[in-house]
Predict the structure.
Amino acid sequence: MFFKVYNISDADANRSGRPMTVLPDSYRQTLRRLGRALRALVYPWHCLHCGARATHPTLPLCTDCLAALRRVPPGEPLRRLHRLPEAIGCFRAAYSLWYETPEGPFRPLHHALKYGNRPVYAQRLGRLLGETFRDELQTIDVVVPVPLHRRRFLERGYNQSAWLARGVGEVLGRPVAPELLVRVRATRSQTHLGRDARRANVARAFAAPYPERVAGRHVLLVDDLLTTGATAAWAAQALHEAHASGVTLLTLGLAA
Ligand SMILES: [Zn+2]
């Protein structure tokens, strides 16, 4: 079934000399779309943004789309965080790699990271994140991902930030300790919430259950996306309550 559909694409039709003109345009388009969807299922290493082949099996974007991702200038994540009163004084530094723009390749990348059930993408991107900011992160003692609530974790089966953190820890040669931070209450999905609703939603949502392992250490907090910064701020506050010597934030994306 799959190969039949695949063969009906224009390129293959020309090669085989099959007369494609007998099919109406809308029908051909539907078949082509179906073919792309099936191909993405069978060969997941096609680029999720442009569909090009030759993508690295552990990255969901091709080289061109990776290069097209917009880099976040230094200083921008901290400026974003400082718009929030609860984030002021929480972070020693903050780094984000790419802007999340509505049209660009970041959205499909992030979606694959979060819902694609492919933690290998997150780990690979975590390594990329660690390599990019290696010089800035030399004083880190331990890497801690922003946790999901247990219920969300069970629904999704993995925490994308934990896999990002694992990749970062590998590159930096620092321990990754997801158990040092937990969500003490379930929060609603932040996706469709405005700024104030997000702030209220995550207030006091985190706790550090092993304060003795946090005290006096410089913690690198890792998350997939920095939006308002409310989640990161409350996570950092829990680490400060456990007497971390400092908290630095590292995220893959910064919401544009
Ligand atoms: Zn691409």
